[in-house]
Amino acid sequence: MLKISAPRLFEPEKSYIINLIFSDFLGLEVSIFFENRNTYSIDLPNGNSIELADAFFCQFTENENYLHPKNIPNQPIFTICGNLTSEHNLPIFWGTVEFEQQPDFVQFGGDIFASAFLMLSRWEENVSPERDTHGRFPDTQNILQRFDLQHRPIVNEYVEFLWNALKFLGYSEERKVQTFKLSFSHDVDYFLSYPNFVRFLKRLGGSLLKRHDFQEFRKSIHEYFGIKFQHKKDPYDTFDVLMDFSEMHGTVSQFNFIPAEIGEADADYNIDNKEVISKIRHILQRGHRVGLHGSYNSFNNSEIFERDLKRLRQIVPEISSGRQHFLRFEVPKTWQLWEANGLKSDSSLGFSNDVGFRCGVCYPFRVFDISERKTLNLTEEPLIFMDTALVHRGCNANEANAEFKKLFLVVQKYRGTFVVLVHNNSAILKILNSLNFSA
Fold this sequence. Notes:
The structure is a single chain. This protein is of the alpha/beta class and 439 residues long. The protein is built from 13 helices and 17 strands. The chain has a 9-stranded mixed β-sheet, sandwiched between helices. The protein has a 6-stranded mixed β-sheet with strand order 2-1-3-4-8-7, with helices on one face. Strand 7 (95-102) and strand 8 form a beta hairpin. The longest helix has 17 residues, at 214-230. It is elongated, with a radius of gyration of 24 Å.
């Protein structure tokens, strides 16, 4: 067993991140002791030890609130830690670059625990006043993206550093075996491209009057009447295509449906529509999953959230996971809603206009509620690759493939969960078969 001695104060926060790294991620048995000290000490059974800085929480008393914009770090500190890091350097947000490596002792001046806590608690999103047009924390304000670190799961790098230090110092226990996993999901924002004649007319008008695209105009006419009279599939009815693809690669698709009704904010279909219910049952019969896609205004409204979930559970009682529509999220309010309603896993925390590691990690992780200062019974499975983010950036097929491959290899290296979102109406479906999903 590892004995970890930590400085007093902010014990819930420190206990959370220490247990998450050592128990959840590494699978090691630890005992945590809070003492009157200035650094963290990790003591091995053989008497060797690791000493780490407490450079963030030491700035505050228990009655002071660290949740303030002024406490968001200005920039990362890039450190070189001998041969113990998995990358060429290790970015931290508080502390110093001081590093010493002896046969019985490793000392590092970086505050790994507070840096990891910043990533996983998402407290920078809570304190920042910046919001985009959808009320979301902007990608560009995320500290990882500001310093071009969004393609690095730095929390995984912290885990590897600590494990490498333990092994260097003669720790003999085995770590938890992590395995690469593909999590393939599909948010059903639009059920059909042509749900009715009015939508068809609107699309024609948009092709001619807005986009001046006669080729698109003709394509819409051919599609609509082909569906109407020749029993062709609607272009958004790609559910079987996506399930076929998942099965081909040995995984399961999860389709997240919006439990809304037309007339409510951003609702495109009725969840109680007979065709929608029939499709949901077909998905379940094929052995795939259905999840919650919380409607546009549900992310911080308990009444709407509970209404949405009740509607969906009337169709699929065992709903336990999903993602918020438009990735609208409020830390920690949205997590609190998911927890209070008995849900087990959320996957909303990804970039809206980029791909990569919004939480700085590629492992699912237990959530910490910064307002109640406690660990929730809820897991966040952070979204890493979303199709529309690449569409927003105007990526072509080659660029999309390059982004996919880069992230795939990173997640594979750390044996994490590669959470991929491809919408049923996605333009990226055209290049789906060219993406290498095999591990």
